[in-house]
């Protein structure tokens, strides 16, 4: 198994399962997808992907439809994706993906978390290079041969593929998302969920006390409503 498998296993052990937070994130994804490509999932591949993820998260259909309708209103808030970078205590790099309708508020909040927890907010590009930006797809495992699928999908950018209890997972570079999505849809293969992740190229092992210092900062960041995802280089 490769880095993507180990990364996913570690992430699944984490506490990132609060339903309200998940639905909030998906709601923002819907708004950004609709603003970018319109409310029709047939012609909007990004919105199609978000709806699949909403279904995987057991988000009620009426919530999804309400979010699409609300996003179609020209007076609705428009969220902007903003990346923040910095260091936690003990030299742990942190990368924060946010979706915000008020950048000044988000900047001030993120900076305050770093300051309160002995971290340092970095400049653009200061830690992003330490992470590989990847896309992923989850499909049902029934009727699929992992090795055969790997050989067939390698031409579309897939670099790592493995089966787990949730189905078959595929990982590829960020830029390959569109070609893989299109190929799976052309083959009539159901996409259970898809998304993007940033996998640390190297991780650092800390003592129990040091981990607690880093966790304190991570928890503050993850609780912020504008934060979508948090990635770090601490070994889990």
UniProtKB/TrEMBL annotation:
Compartments it resides in: Cytoplasm
Name of the protein in its database record: Probable transcriptional regulatory protein EPI11_06020
UniProt record similarity statement: Belongs to the TACO1 family.
GO molecular function: DNA binding
Domain of life of the native organism: Bacteria
An example Gene Ontology biological process: regulation of DNA-templated transcription
Domain (TACO1/YebC-like second and third) ranges: 79-234
PANTHER family: TRANSCRIPTIONAL REGULATORY PROTEIN YEBC-RELATED, TRANSLATIONAL ACTIVATOR OF CYTOCHROME C OXIDASE 1
InterPro entries hit by this protein: Integrase-like_N, TACO1_YebC-like_2nd/3rd_dom, TACO1_YebC_N, Transcrip_reg_TACO1-like, Transcrip_reg_TACO1-like_dom3, YebC-like
GO cellular component: cytosol
Signal peptide interval: none
Source organism of this protein record: Flavobacterium cerinum
Domain TACO1/YebC-like N-terminal: 4-73
Keyword Transcription regulation applies: yes
Gene3D superfamilies: 1.10.10.200, 3.30.70.980
Pfam families according to UniProt: TACO1_YebC_N (PF20772), Transcrip_reg (PF01709)
Keyword terms of this UniProt record: Cytoplasm, DNA-binding, Transcription, Transcription regulation
């Amino acid at each position: 198994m490769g880095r993507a498998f180990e990364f996913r296993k570690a992430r699944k052990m984490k506490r990132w399962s609060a339903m309200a937070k998940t639905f909030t994130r998906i709601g923002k994804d819907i708004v950004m997808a609709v603003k970018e490509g319109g409310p029709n999932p047939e012609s909007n591949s990004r919105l199609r992907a978000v709806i699949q993820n909403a279904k995987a998260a057991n988000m009620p259909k009426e919530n999804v439809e309400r979010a699409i309708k609300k996003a179609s209103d020209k007076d609705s808030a428009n969220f902007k994706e903003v990346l923040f970078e910095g260091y936690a205590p003990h030299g742990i790099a942190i990368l924060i993906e946010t979706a915000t309708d008020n950048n000044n508020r988000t900047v001030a909040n993120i900076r305050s978390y770093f300051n309160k927890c002995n971290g340092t907010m970095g400049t653009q590009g200061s830690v992003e290079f330490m992470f590989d930006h990847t896309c992923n797809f989850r499909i049902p495992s029934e009727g699929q041969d992992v090795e055969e699928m790997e050989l067939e999908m390698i031409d579309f950018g897939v670099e790592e593929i493995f089966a787990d209890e949730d189905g078959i997972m595929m990982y590829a570079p960020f830029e390959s998302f569109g070609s893989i999505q299109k190929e799976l849809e052309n083959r009539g293969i159901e996409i259970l969920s898809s998304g993007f992740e940033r996998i640390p190229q190297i991780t650092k092992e800390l003592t129990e006390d040091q981990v607690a210092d880093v966790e304190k900062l991570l928890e503050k960041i993850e609780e912020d409503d504008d934060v979508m995802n948090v990635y770090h280089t601490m070994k889990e």
